[in-house]
Amino acid sequence: MDTKRHTSKQYETELQEVKESLLYLGALTQQAIEDSIRALLDRDTGLARKVIANDAFIDKLDGEVEEKCIRLLALRQPAARDLRFITTAIKINGHLERIGDMAVKICEKVALLNEEAQLKPYIDLPRMAEIARGMIRKSLDALVKEDVALANEVRREDEAVDSLNEQIFRELLTFMMEDPRTIHRSLLIMQISKTVERISDHAKGIADMVVFMITGKNVRHQWPFDEEEAIRPGGRKQVKPSQIQ
Amino acid sequence: MRGRLFYKIFASYLVLVVLVMAVMEFFLTPKIRETITQNVRERMIGQGRIMVLLPLEELVKKTADLAAGAQARITVIDAAGRVLADSSRQDQKWDNHLNRSEVQEARIRGLGAAVRYSRTLGRNMLYIAVAVGREGEIRGYVRLACSLEDVSASIDHLYRSIYLTLFIIALPSLVLAFFFSRGIAAPIRRMTEFTEKIRSGERPAPLLADGEDELGKLTKDINAMLAEQEEKIRLATEEKSKLEAAFAGMVEGVLTLDRANHIDQFNRSLRKMIGRRQDEIRGKTLLEVFHSAALREAFLRFRETGKPLTAEITVGDERPLALEVNISAIAGLPADEGKIMMVFHNVTRLKQLERMRMDFVANVTHEIRTPLTAIIGYVETLLQGAASQDARQREKFLQTIQANAQRLNRLVDDLLTLSNIETGEIRLHRESVAPDELIAEALKTIQPRLEGKKIKSFTRIPPHIPPLWVDRDRAVQVLLNILDNAVKYTPAGGRITVSATVQTELREELTEKGGPGVGVETKAAGRDRFTGEDEAAATRNGGPEAFVAIIIADTGPGVPKLELPRLGERFYRVDKTRSRELGGTGLGLSIVKHLMAAHGGRLEIDSAPGQGTTVALFFPTVKKQ
Predict the structure, then answer these.
(1) Is B73 helix (H, G, I), strand (E, B) or coil?
(2) Among A121, A161, B476, B547, which is least packed, fewest CB within 10 Å?
(3) How far apart are CA B476 and CA B443, in angstroms?
(4) What pTM did the predictor assign?
């Protein structure tokens, strides 16, 4: 978007608007995640309720972005890069909206947890949420900078969140085995952990779309990363010597 | 090379001279010629008129004399046209002259004139004929003839002198023009060169002003103007660099937004705050750089109201910063209309302190209330009669009450100690103490508990360790506190190692330490917490000196690296439930930290989950005098 200019100033502005709205949506969801974890740590049910209430605004913004994108598609009939950007925007928009919903889910669990005594100090969970939140920010940053390397970094971080989730799962399992009275709380925490893990999946989804937007290459179900060298901004895949035979 | 101006001025003079000559040639010449011809003609007519006063016979007789007098050829003709006499030739046979136009004219009007080519003389001649006698009785004619060539010759003569005069005038005036145009063009050319040099960035020597005329004044003015401009530019540059230095040196991050709401200018502090490169900030929007919904909302609110406002935002992932942002419009120049300035204050530390204070109050209340609740509960039970029923039960209740009362007592003691250290009321009785002595003393005290948990302790103290310059009791207290923690968290059958090393300089230690498994992040965080005291200590002791590090390593569960910076905060517990069960007040590390600072030393903790905890205590040694 930055490198070339469109003949129509209006068109340019509209594309920029879509980008800004996406970033705003991203910032709002990051805030929601942060607040939901803060609500958990501080046992602040009021904050949790606030996050739940704010989700309506995220949903509204999501609708607006989608409408803007569709109008652009219909009226401007974009091609190549712009088309990729708009389709990417629609998908990222969807991911962000889901992330907002997940923050709501976390807050609902937090409200329930706060009705009982704290089971354990939270160490891994905030770390996990921090990583997931960082993934959203970085993937949107990659969108702004058109930085494939950064997007790939985000895609890799998903794994760290997954392993943290498993760790929390194991830990809670021991709690539940020791004392059945902790089962309710443990399950709630597990659900929160799982939700955070899904947030990171969505963040990875955003990063995938960013890679697609920049390179024109679909990497959504591509793993592992030994191929990342091949994904360059030019969009062409370089064949390694070992692959020639 | 002479400039164009010179040629312009000189050429105009040249044209002027040529023009004067041309005008003379085209307008004056015919006029002069006509006037002279007219004069000759008038003269001849006059002479003719006088001649006809004589009788015809006389005229015939005196033709030659008259011709000589009149400087003309004279022909006398009778009324019939026969030539009676002619001054030029006597002997010739003349044809009838009556048909000559001048004679015909004279016959009718008494006077006739004509210019004709004379075949007789082969020249252009002017003829004047005057009738002799009255009208009606004409007796003859006198005809005067004069060569026009003679007239031309005299005209040419006149011209020669006129042209000569003109030439004499033109030559000096051209010379004059040459010098005059050079006199104007040269200084102007010099000024042009001068201004061109200035434009190309040179600083030429001032122009030499010659003369008091307009040009001289202009030269002086240019010199004065240049000096003035230079002074103004110098002042402006100075002002600008001052502003820039202030802008760059500000602790607060500053940025300005242009009319399209893109980031225009920003300072280094801002760049450092958000940890981005220049090109990642310039020309971007707020959201692109900050990813902060709060900032955007504050910005929109400002745009709506136009009133300066303050908002709080959080940026960054791993070590988030709390920033207070002031948004205001840039006032002043019309060029800045619609631009917005944002100033970011880093309030992270403030927020932390605020949080710590709030935590402290909450914690103190909580810590005191817990044993109190227990005491009150058991006392109430005893009062209700439980005491009288079962002696063993009563004994147990009283023991619990005692334990809780002791706990309260410990807590209050610790708080008092802490408060004394913090207010500086504690007095250190420093003396020279050998490290091994100190360690032995502490280990002896803790020995029963080590045995109770079957924890093995090792000491590794190299020889020739310099003695420490510390308050013995306080140092033992510090060691005991740390050992107590180690024993508390090390599982049964674990291991505690106490070692000592010499550190030549505090700073070196900071950068060298931090082995594998402990990230730089942790070190940085640890440094943040303790740097303040270190520096204070260093200045107090008059510079860096040798330190002895006593390092206590355990095989406990370890502390997650994120928690490390917060260790040493009062009542801060990594695992809140577990630690209270183990009977800590939550003030131990805090006291250690402050005591080390009071000694001019430092506390450093390295740990990772599952890898045990290593506490390094840096004690100052006896100063070498």
Answers:
(1) strand
(2) A121
(3) 10
(4) 0.55
Residue B141 reports pLDDT greater than 90: no
Residues B70, B40: contact at Cβ < 8 Å? no
Contacts of B433 (CB under 8 A, 6+ apart): B467, B468, B469, B470, B472, B475
Task: Write down the pLDDT at residue A244.
Answer: 40
pLDDT at position B540 is 43
Nearest C-alpha neighbor of A210 from the set A158, A132, A153, A131: A153
Find out whether the peptide bond into B565 is cis, omega within 30 degrees of 0.
no
pLDDT at position B528: 38
Domain spans of chain A, in order of start: 2-243
Q: What pLDDT score does B2 carry?
A: 57
Cβ contact B291–A121 (<8 Å): no
Alpha carbon distance B503, B525 (integer Å): 21
Would you say the ipTM is above 0.85?
no
Mutate one of A31, A119, A136, A175 to test the B interface: name it (highest B CB count within 10 A).
A31
CB contact under 8 A, B575 and A121: yes
pLDDT: is B234 or B139 the higher one?
B234
Which residues of chain A are within 8 Å of residue B560 when distances are taken between CB atoms?
123
Chain A / chain B CB contacts < 8 angstroms: 48
Q: Give the DSSP H or E segment for B431.
A: strand B430-433
Q: Does domain A2-243 have CATH number 1.20.58.220?
A: yes
Select the residue of A23, A120, A130 nearest B291 (Cβ to Cβ). Answer: A23
Q: Find the residue in A nearest to B283 (Cα).
A: A2
Tokens of B579: 């630690």
d(CA B443, CA B459): 10
> Over the stretch A127-178, which tens digit does the pLDDT of each residue have?
888 889 889 988 988 888 888 888 888 888 888 888 889 988 988 888 888 8
- Residues of chain A short of pLDDT 70, as ranges, are 1-7, 221-245
pLDDT at residue A221 in the model: 66
Q: How many other CB atoms are there within 10 angstroms of residue A89's CB atom?
A: 23
DSSP letter for each residue of A185-243: HHHHHHHHHHHHHHHHHHHHHHHHHHHHHHH----TT---GGGGGG--TT-PPPPPHHH
Neighbours of B98 (CB within 10 A): 15
Cα nearest neighbour of A132 on chain B: B317
Total number of residues shown for chain B: 625
Residue of A44, A58, A144, A185 to mutate when probing chain B, most B C-beta within 10 A: A144
- Residue matched to tokens 């801002």: B270
- Residue B145: enclosing H or E segment and its boundaries? strand B140-147
Average pLDDT, rounded, for chain B: 79
Residue B605 confidence (pLDDT): 86
Q: Nearest C-alpha of chain A: how many angstroms from B333?
A: 28
B314 at the A interface (CB within 8 A)?
yes
DSSP character string of B541-601: TTS---EEEEEEEE-S----TTTGGGTTSTT--SSHHHHHHTT--S-HHHHHHHHHHHTT-
Q: Are A86 and A209 in contact (CB under 8 A)?
A: no
Q: Which residue of A has its CA nearest to B320?
A: A130
Choice between B523 and A172, residue whose per-residue pLDDT is larger:
A172
CB spacing of B285 vs A133 below 8 angstroms:
no
CB A33 within 8 A of CB B296: no
- Tell me what pLDDT residue A99 has: 92
Question: At a CB cut-off of 8 Å and minimum separation 6, what does B365 contact?
Answer: none
User: How high is the pLDDT of residue B581?
Assistant: 56
Rounded to a whole number of angstroms, the distance from the CA of B462 to the nearest CA of chain A is: 39
CA distance A25 to chain B (A): 8
